[in-house]
Amino acid sequence: xxxKLEMSASITLPAEVGEEHMVVELAKKWGADxxxxxxxxxxxxxxxxxxxxxxxTTCLVRxxxxxxxxxxxxxxxxxxxxxxxxxxxxxxVIDPMSGxxxxxxxxxxxxxxxxxWEVINRTTGERVPVSKWKFDPRTGxxxxxxxIPFHVYTVSFLVFQVWDTTSMYNHLTNRWDKPRVIxxxxxxxxxxxxxxxxxDQYLAAHPQTDVVRLTTLAYHFAVDSDQDSVDKFxxxxxxxxxxxVPALEDFAKEHGYRLRAEDFxxxxxxxxxxxxxxxxxxxxMEFIHRFxxxxxxxxxxxxxxxxxxxxxxxxxxxxxxxxxxxxxLKMGIDIHVGAAEDGVALRRxxxxxxxxxKELRLYPYFFPDVFREGxxxxxESVSNWIKIRRALLRKPVDRLGYGGYLSLAxxxxxxxxxxxxxxxxxRSFKDNxxxxxxxxxxxxxxxLNAWGNWKAWINSFGAPQKFLVKRxxxxxxxxxxxxxxxxxxxxxxxxxSFAEVEKSGIPQDVDVIINDGDAETAWSGGRWWANPKVVxxxxxxxxxxxxxxxCRGPSAFQHQxxxxxxxxxxxxxxxxxxxxxxxxxxxxxxxxxxxxxxxxGGADFGTRETFVYVCDPATELLAANGLHVMAAAKxxxxxxxxxxxxxxxxxxxxxxxxxxxxxxxxxxxELRNWFCSNPQTDCAWYPMSQKxxxxxxxxxxxxxxxxxxxxKSSKITLKPHASKWLD
Amino acid sequence: xxxKLEMSASITLPAEVGEEHMVVELAKKWGADxxxxxxxxxxxxxxxxxxxxxxxTTCLVRxxxxxxxxxxxxxxxxxxxxxxxxxxxxxxVIDPMSGxxxxxxxxxxxxxxxxxWEVINRTTGERVPVSKWKFDPRTGxxxxxxxIPFHVYTVSFLVFQVWDTTSMYNHLTNRWDKPRVIxxxxxxxxxxxxxxxxxDQYLAAHPQTDVVRLTTLAYHFAVDSDQDSVDKFxxxxxxxxxxxVPALEDFAKEHGYRLRAEDFxxxxxxxxxxxxxxxxxxxxMEFIHRFxxxxxxxxxxxxxxxxxxxxxxxxxxxxxxxxxxxxxLKMGIDIHVGAAEDGVALRRxxxxxxxxxKELRLYPYFFPDVFREGxxxxxESVSNWIKIRRALLRKPVDRLGYGGYLSLAxxxxxxxxxxxxxxxxxRSFKDNxxxxxxxxxxxxxxxLNAWGNWKAWINSFGAPQKFLVKRxxxxxxxxxxxxxxxxxxxxxxxxxSFAEVEKSGIPQDVDVIINDGDAETAWSGGRWWANPKVVxxxxxxxxxxxxxxxCRGPSAFQHQxxxxxxxxxxxxxxxxxxxxxxxxxxxxxxxxxxxxxxxxGGADFGTRETFVYVCDPATELLAANGLHVMAAAKxxxxxxxxxxxxxxxxxxxxxxxxxxxxxxxxxxxELRNWFCSNPQTDCAWYPMSQKxxxxxxxxxxxxxxxxxxxxKSSKITLKPHASKWLD
Lengths: 727, 727
Hints:
2 copies of one chain form a homodimer. By secondary structure, chain A is of the alpha/beta class. Chain A has an 8-stranded parallel barrel, surrounded by 4 helices. In chain A, a hairpin with a 5-residue loop joins strand 34 and strand 35. The longest helix of chain A has 27 residues. Chain A is globular, with a radius of gyration of 27 Å. The two termini of chain A are 26 Å apart. In chain A, 56% of the residues are buried. Chains A and B meet through strand 15, helix 16 and helix 19 of A and strand 15, helix 15 and helix 18 of B.
C-alpha cells in the first residue's frame, strides 16, 4: 500500500524569502501542506517554522561550486560532431567547435585525441586513419591531409561542459549575472566521495527538512547550443551528456569491445529519441542506468538514515533513473515528482510502477518567461489543467505542486484565484474517488515502438510540429499527437519494445497494439519492421483476433516491395517514389462505420497530404482527401486493423481513437458502459466509492447523455470546464 | 541538311472512307499536303487519287492476324509478379493470375516454370528453393510447402500476351466488337521471316503510298490491367513487354550471366521509369535496343528499296527505338512523328538528334473519348497548343498532323475553324523563321538523372499528381513540372545520366545542372547520390563556377548524416524523421533577389509542406511557408545553387526558373537580351530571317516591354493568345 502524506491538503507551495506573510496566506488559500525552495530561492527560518512540511531541494552534482573549479577534469563530458566540411583540395582544417557555444563547452585536452576522437569521410562513410589527421591543442583545430577533393569530412570530439545546462537556461531567461553553475560527474571516484561527504553535511545542516527533493541525480538531459547560445538540439530523454573517460573504459572492460565516438555522434543525429537505437547504444544506456541507480540508492540510504524522506524530481539531471525500468524502484525513493503540462505528462508520472507517492509539478513555472508584463499564465494553466484532468480520470496522482518565484505569481491575482479552484477540484477528485482508480474497459492496449519502457509516455512529436514557427529553438511539443488522445481513454495502456516482441512475442493479455510515429523513427520502428520474427509475430497476433492501430508511419520501412511492411494487414501503403506509375485501388469513403459514428463535420488530421493509398480492395476507407487516405479500417484473419494518417490531439480525434480501439479489439458492444455521448465530455466510475464523475472539457456549456454500466442512461448539462460528481 | 517535304503546307490529315468530299474540303481549309489512315480507318482509291501525299500506317507486329493464332508461342511475353500473399500456416497456394486481366494474359505453359519462375519470401527477401514449390498447369496455381507462418510470398511468372495493348484500349474505349488483335514478337526467327515476307507483300500492295508510317516496330510500352481490365500499371517508356525466352537465352550467352525473374519484376515495381535502374536491367534494355534497331533497319531498307520514305510514330510499339541514342539514326528513318500535348512532348520530338523531318501528331485524337456529346476538344486543343507554341519558339518542327476519325472532328465546327487558325499560325512560324532556330542565350543546361538520353524530355510526374483524382487508372500527367517550364526557355538543354558523370564528369560546356524529381526516384537519382565519384564531380563543377538547380528531391538519399547529399551546396536539407529534435537554422525570406524579381503576389509551388529546412546560415531564403522552404539560393565556391520545393508548370514558375538559370550561371546581365518584362508573354529572335516574334500565352490581352539584343526596348500590346511578328 502507498504511504500517503496527509490526504486533505496535498499541495506543495514554492516559498521565497521576504514573502513569508504571503506564503501563509497562499498556503491557506490553496490548501498547501508543504513548502519548498526552488532554483534561486531559499527558505528562511521563519518559513521553516510555519508548521508545514518542508521540502528542501538540492541537486548534488551542481550544488557545491568549489570542487568543480578545482577538478575541471571531472566535469560532464560529451561527444560532439563538428559541422560537416567539404574539402576543396588535398588538405583541410576543421575547427570542431565552430557552430557550438564556446561558453558551454571546452575541448578535452586531457585525453588523447587520437584515442577518442574520430575523423570521418562522410562521402564514403570511412574513418580517416589517425596518421592522416592531427589535432593542435594550441589552435583547437584539426588538420586532415590527403583529403579527397569534394568529399565531406567531420571531426567527432570530446568536450567538457563548463556551464550546467539548467544554470545556463536560467541565466539567459532571467538575465542573471551571478556566477555560473558548473556540474560534476560522480562517475569519477574522487567526485563520488566528495558528493557523499557533502551530502552528509547537507543532511546535518537541514534538521527541519522533512523531504529532500533531489533534482535529480547525476546526468542532465541534452540541450546543445549553437555559437550564439541558441538551442540547436534537444533530447529530454537522451544519454548524450553521460560521457566520461573512466565510464568509457569501464564499459570496454565489461563488454569486451570499445564504443566509438561514432556510436555517440551517430552521423550527427546523436541517438535522439526519434532515432531507432543501436544495440551498442542501448548497452551504453543500460550501463549508465545501473550506475545512476547505484548513486541514487547511496543517497536515498543516507536520507532515510537521517530520518527524512526522499523525493525525486523527474527533470534536469534525471538521465539514467528510468522510472519504468526495474532498477528505479531499487533506489527506494519515497516521492516521485514530475512536471506536467498535459495528459501524457500526467500519465508519465501516474503510470510508473511501484507504490511511491506521486506529485505533479504544474506549469506555468513562476518564472519571468511567462509571468511578465503581457504574459498570460491563466490561459496556459487552464489549457494544461483540462488536459491533465482528462487523464487524471484514468490514473490519479497524490499531490500537486508549483515551483519558481512566488512573488511573480502574486502579480497575477486571477491566476492565484484560479489555482485555488484547481486545488479544490483536485482534492474533490481525491476525496470522491475513495482512494482507488476509475473502472477501466476490458481492453488492454500496448504502444509498440523501439523504446518500450525506456521511454514510456514520452510524446513523439513529428515533422509537422517541427515545421511550426513557435520559437527558434526546438522543444518537446506538448499534447500534439495520438498519445495525448490515448492518455484520457478508459483503457489500460502499457509500452512494449520490438526487442521484447522479438524475444517473447506479444503478451497474452494484450487486445490492441498501437504503432504511432513518423516513418523511420524509433516511434514507428524503422528497421525493426524488416525483422522477420517481429513482423510475423505481430501479424500472427492480429490474425488470431488481435487489434492493430497504425498512425503516421506505422510499420514503415522500405523492404521487398512494400513501404508499410504491414500493408497486408492495414490495406494501405505509402507512396515513396517507387509506385508512381501504379494505380491506387479505387475506394469510396464508407458512409457509416462504428469508428466514425460520432464524427460530426469531419476530423482534423493535421495534414492534407498523407501520400498513403489504398492497396487492397478489402480496405474500408473512413476518411480521405482526394486519394490521400486519412483513416481506414480492415479485417485481417480474425483480427482488425485501423490506420490513421495522423491523429493530433483534439476531442474529436480522441473519440475516433476511443472507438477505433474498441472496434479493433472486437468489443464494440462494450463501448457504452460508463460512456458520454458528447465527445466534449467524459465520465469515470469509481468502484471503491461507487461514485461517478462527469466532466466538460470544453469552454462552452455541454449537454451529454451518460451511459452507465447497467445499460441505463441519463442526460446531464455541464457548465464550461465543469466537473460534477454523482452517486 | 534536312530533307524537307514541301514547306508551305506541312499538315497531315487523317482520312476516312465515306468522307472523301470532307477530306478535300478540310485539306484546303487546314492546308494539308498529306493524308493518312489511322487505327481502324482505311484509305479508299478515291482518296489515294486526291493528289496529296499518302502516308500509309502499318504496325507489322500486329498487322496480320492468322500467323499469331497459329503460333501462340511467339506472342510477346512478360514477367508478372503475383499479389503478395501472407502464409498463415505451413503451406500456401497462390493463384498467380489473381489480380490480372485473364483476357489479356495467359500463363506460359510451354517453358519450364522451375527454370524461369521464382517464388520469393518477401519477408526475408530469400528465394524459395524450387524443391519447395510446384506449379500445377491444370489449375494454374502454385503450391508452396514449408512456408513460415506470417511471412509474405510472391510468385514471379511468365505470361503470353493474347491481346495487344492498343487493340484492347481501342476496343474498350470504342466498345468495338470486332476481333481482338494479337501481336507477335519478331525476336523469334520464324516470326521475323514471316514479318519480312509480309512487309514485302505490303509494299507491293501499296503502290500509291509515298510514306510508310510504322507504328512502330517490335515492342509495346507497358499497360497492365487488373482483373476488371482497369489499368494498374503504366510505363510509356518501359521494357516490361520485351520478354521472350529466346532473347533471355541469347542474353545469357552474350553476357555470361542469366537474368532472373526478379530482375524484371523488381519487387513488384517493374523497373518503372521512376525507379533507379539496375545495371542488369540497363544491360537488358541495351540488348533489346540493339535488336529493335536491327529490325527497324531491315524494314527501312525494304521501304527505301521500294522507292518510299519511312515515317516512324513515337508511340505504341516504340520500345527499344530510343530516339536519343546513336542506334536510332542507324535505322535510316526519314520522318519522325510524335504525339504532343505540351511543350515537353514538342521538345521530345524537336530536340532529337539527326536531320530527320519532324512531325507532331496533335491532341485531341479524333476518338470518342473526347469527341463525344458534351466533350470539349476546342479547350483541350487551345490549352495544348499554347504550351506547344511556347516551346516551339525554342526548337521548331517541320510538320503537324492529326489522327483518328475525321467524321468525329467534323461534328465540332468551332474546333475545325480553330485548327485552321492553328495550322496557319504554325506555317507563319515556319515561314518567318527563315528555316532556322531562334537565338539562344549563352547558357547551357543539362538535366541530370539516372536515365540521361534513355529518357530525354520524358515528363517525371510526382506523388502529388498521382494523388489527384483524375481517372481511376494511371496516366502520364502532362506538363506538370519543371521540365514544362524549361521547355520554353531560351537556353540549350541536354540530358545527362549519373553513369556518364561517373565515367566522364560534367561536359566542359555546361553552365547549369538541373536535378528535378521526387526523392528516391530515377529522376532525382536515389542511390547514385551516395556514389563518391558522382557527388564529388558535381560539387567540383559547382565550386569552380557552375550552377546547380535542385527541385523536389534533389540529391536525396539517406547517407552519412544527410538526406540531401548536396546539403552543403544547397544549404537546405529535408526532415525524414532523423532530425526532429534538431533546430532549423533561423532564416528570413529575402526582401529582394534577382530570382524573385518578377514575382508579383507569390508563386504556387504545388505544395504547402516540403519538410525542407535551412541548414546553413549562408542560405538565402527566397520563399517559405512557415519553416517549410519553398525556394532558396546559395553561393558555393565560385558557383551558385538554387533549390525549389517543387515547380509545377505555370508562367510564374517558368519565369522563376528562367531567372534561376541565369542567376545560377552567374549571367544575370545577359537576361534582358530578347526578353519580355511580362511573364505572360515571350519573344524569340530569329537571326536567319532577322525577325522577332512576341507571343501572349494568356487568355487576356497583355502589355509587355520587349528588350532587344542591343539593350533597347519597346512596349507592345497583344490580344489574348496572339503572336506578332516584328522586323
